[in-house]
Write a sequence for this structure.
């Protein structure tokens, strides 16, 4: 569909949906990549603040989709399904030239299937982790997508074998983030002391993650501060609500005396500035690796969710740096091992063990090299046939 935006020029409508903060970041990079080559695109669907800053219109709040795990999703299922039905109806009436689903496979693949059947071309950006768990989703992908944009090099063979059109475009974060992270510059930007020791705490971008992990992070910070009184803590949080939840946890645990600085956003600056980090499993672990921040990975979910996920997992790791390196690089303390005393021990060792840090940084350099491509050009080349 073309639409007149009041400027006298026709514009192409592009449907787009992201479901959480990491997808919002990647979606904003995709929109920016396309707009570097053309200015006639009108993006509408579900978008977070970063995508909206690139001009996307959001018809529903992205936060509604930001749930993780089987158990957690059940509480929001009716609302999510209603949003998907409503959005599908709008898209089918308006007939966008192209629909792009940004991650969020449980939401987007069903929507893409319906749109594709109706003749709307569909692109999915970031493959579901079929190489890690739930391999059967490849059949849903085949029905849902006209083209898949891949961000990991090893995925290309999987899609070629499955007969699904796909293009490896590199990882947008590897393209967008600095090739050589600058700790001094990041500390200057945040107004931090150059000679001080800082630990970044990243408990996740979703409200459910912060609710689950805030007290664990704060108990760990208390133990670390008792061992290292010189250590200071940076806590970048994505939204006002996650900040409120973390501050409430500080109050409950009587942790206001800890040298904590809460940042609104600035996760990339915090990771560059920090000597090390404690990071919730997810895209932030890759961001930490790309920014040369040695870290420990942790995560906790409700017991039933964990059991269901582990019963369908194929790899011994959950952290992207370990998966991409295909070996143990970053310590993972998940679920029952996610305890303050174990996290404290792992972080103290990481802060003091030069060999461990150097091994991580060597692995991170290899990961950056494998993921860094001319992503804007590759995305534009892959999508251009759909936009003629």
């Amino acid at each position: 569909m073309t639409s007149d935006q009041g400027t006298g020029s026709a514009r192409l409508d592009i449907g787009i949906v992201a479901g959480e903060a990491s997808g919002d970041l990647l979606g904003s990079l995709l929109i920016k990549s396309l707009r570097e080559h053309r200015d006639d695109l009108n993006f509408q669907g579900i978008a977070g603040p970063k995508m909206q800053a690139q001009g996307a219109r959001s018809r529903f709040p992205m936060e509604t989709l930001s749930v993780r795990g089987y158990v957690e999703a059940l509480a929001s299922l009716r609302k999510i399904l209603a949003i998907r039905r409503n959005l599908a109806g709008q898209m089918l009436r308006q007939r966008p030239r192209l629909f792009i689903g940004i991650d969020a496979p449980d939401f987007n693949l069903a929507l893409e299937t319906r749109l594709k059947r109706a003749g709307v071309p569909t692109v999915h950006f970031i493959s579901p982790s079929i190489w890690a768990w739930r391999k059967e989703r490849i059949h849903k992908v085949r029905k849902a997508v006209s083209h898949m944009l891949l961000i990991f090099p090893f995925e290309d063979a999987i899609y070629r074998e499955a007969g699904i059109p796909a293009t490896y475009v590199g990882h947008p974060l590897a393209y967008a983030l600095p090739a050589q992270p600058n700790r001094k510059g990041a500390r200057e930007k945040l107004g931090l002391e150059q000679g001080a020791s800082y630990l970044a705490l990243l408990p996740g971008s979703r409200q459910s993650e912060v609710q689950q992990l805030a007290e664990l992070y704060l108990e760990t910070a208390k133990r670390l501060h008792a061992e290292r009184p010189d250590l200071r803590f940076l806590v970048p949080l994505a939204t006002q609500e996650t900040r409120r939840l973390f501050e409430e946890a500080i109050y409950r645990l009587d942790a206001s005396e800890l040298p904590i600085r809460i940042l609104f956003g600035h996760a990339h600056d915090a990771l560059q500035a920090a000597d090390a980090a404690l990071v919730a499993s997810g895209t932030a672990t890759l961001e930490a690796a790309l920014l040369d921040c040695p870290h420990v990975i942790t995560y906790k979910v409700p017991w039933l969710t964990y059991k269901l996920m582990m019963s369908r997992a194929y790899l011994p790791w959950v952290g992207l740096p370990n998966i991409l390196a295909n070996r143990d690089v970053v310590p993972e303390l998940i679920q029952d091992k996610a305890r303050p005393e174990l996290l404290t021990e792992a972080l103290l060792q990481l802060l003091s063990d030069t060999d461990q840090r150097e091994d991580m940084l060597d692995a991170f350099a290899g990961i950056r090299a494998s993921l860094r491509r001319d992503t804007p050009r590759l995305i534009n080349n892959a999508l251009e046939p759909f936009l003629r």
